[in-house]
Structures are given as C-alpha cells and as structure tokens.
C-alpha cells in the first residue's frame, strides 16, 4: 500500500467476523465530526485479546470488501491478515508511520471500552507517539477511568477541538460524540445460527455472501 501526504487519516482495526453496521455507522459519523479524509480498515488475523474468528481470513476480507464497495471514505490494509502471529497495534502503527512519513496526521479509532482497558495493550505507552486516538461512544461504559494515573494521562492528551487532529501528526485523544449502536458480532452470529435474517444489521452484499458460503449457520 502506498501513501501520499493527505489530510487526517484514521485506522480502524477489528476481526470483522462479520463486519456490520455497528462498525460502519459510528465511523461514518466520526468522519464527519473530525474531518477524516480516509478510514483504513485493518482486519486482524490473530487478535491477541479475543477468541479466534469463526470465518477464515480470506472470508472476512471478502466481507469487508463487500461492505465498503462504492464508499470512497473506506479503504483496506491487509498487513495484519498476512501475519501468522498476533496483531499488536503498536507494531502496525510503527510500520504505517514509517511508510506515511513523520508529518502525516494519523489517528486510530477505538471504542470507549477499549480506551478503558488500553493499559493492558502491548506497548500502549507509545501509541500517542505514532497517532491520535479517536474514541467512539459505547453503550454502558463509563466516560472516565477509575485509576487516577490513567485519568491524568487522558486529561493530559484530551482535546475537544477536532481541528487540532489535522494540525499535528499524533498525540491527541478525541472523545467523539458518535451514535450508540448496540450491535455485537457475537449476537449476529448467534442470530444467524438460529435462522434469523440480519439485513437490518449487516449490509446486504455481506449477508448474501454469508448465505452463499454457509457461514455462521451452526
């Protein structure tokens, strides 16, 4: 993947097993809020903190492609899918930063649940040396850390001005006011296994692919 200097770009990682509107709609709202020029989807191969995906890497990649076809906001980076070892965000960010250059404004999109557990991530202390963090709201999660040191870290880096995200390449945390979409891939897989249709939760081309390949049916 080659990069040219552009406005604010963001990465959004996940197993996407399957990709659904709970992934896409908050990110589209976030893009309008902060002026994102591009969102790079990063399908994980071996997520270090979660159970292994039900669909294989090529199937999950194909579903991501189907979900974003015709949408110019999104593109895909497959470097994590091509690894056979756990996907650590800090390593991916270091690799992308080397390719993009030091001055490209770059952000990483996470949910509020991930922010509150970010101190468990490998190399989390260096994340803001490579990117900004854009935090999407999640139903049922506190806005603040219980740990005072982590709350101090958040307060030190937090900005309420989305324009700052385009002015410097990294270092800020922005708590976005995105829609609360209470959809989980686990619930979708359970619904599909019980014979329910999920056209209201997943883009139609992805649902069609799921049925054609008999995914999540048992």
UniProtKB/TrEMBL annotation:
Q: Which Pfam families match?
A: CTP_transf_like
What Gene Ontology terms for biological process does this UniProt record contain? NAD+ biosynthetic process
Question: Has keyword NAD?
Answer: yes
Pathway linked to the protein: Cofactor biosynthesis; NAD(+) biosynthesis; deamido-NAD(+) from nicotinate D-ribonucleotide: step 1/1
Enumerate the InterPro entries for this protein. Cyt_trans-like, NadD/NMNAT, Rossmann-like_a/b/a_fold
List the molecular function annotations (GO) for this entry: ATP binding; nicotinate-nucleotide adenylyltransferase activity
Q: Which CDD domains match?
A: NMNAT
Keyword NADP listed: no
- The broad enzyme category this protein falls into is transferase
Matching entries from HAMAP family are given as: NaMN_adenylyltr
Please describe what this protein does. Answer: Catalyzes the reversible adenylation of nicotinate mononucleotide (NaMN) to nicotinic acid adenine dinucleotide (NaAD).
Q: What is this protein called?
A: Probable nicotinate-nucleotide adenylyltransferase
UniProt organism field? Providencia sneebia DSM 19967
Task: Write the gene name.
Answer: nadD
């Amino acid at each position: 993947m080659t990069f040219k200097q552009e406005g604010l770009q963001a990465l959004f990682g996940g197993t996407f097993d399957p990709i659904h509107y709970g992934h896409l709609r908050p990110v589209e709202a976030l893009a309008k809020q902060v002026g994102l020029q591009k969102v790079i989807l990063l399908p994980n191969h071996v997520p270090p903190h979660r159970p292994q995906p039900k669909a294989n890497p090529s199937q999950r990649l194909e579903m991501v492609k189907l979900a974003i076809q015709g949408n110019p906001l999104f593109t895909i980076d497959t470097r994590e899918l091509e690894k056979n070892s756990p996907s650590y965000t800090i390593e991916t960010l270091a690799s992308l930063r080397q390719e993009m250059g030091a001055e490209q404004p770059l952000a990483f999109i996470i949910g509020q649940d991930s922010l509150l557990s970010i101190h468990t991530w490998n190399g989390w202390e260096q994340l803001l040396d490579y990117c900004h963090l854009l935090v999407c709201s999640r139903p049922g999660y506190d806005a603040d850390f219980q740990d005072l040191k982590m709350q101090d870290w958040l307060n030190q880096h937090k900005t309420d001005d989305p324009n700052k995200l385009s002015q410097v390449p990294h270092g800020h945390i922005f708590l976005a006011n995105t829609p609360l979409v209470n959809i989980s891939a686990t619930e979708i897989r359970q619904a599909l296994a019980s014979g329910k249709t999920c056209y209201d939760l997943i883009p139609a081309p992805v649902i069609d692919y799921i049925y054609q390949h008999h995914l999540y049916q048992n």
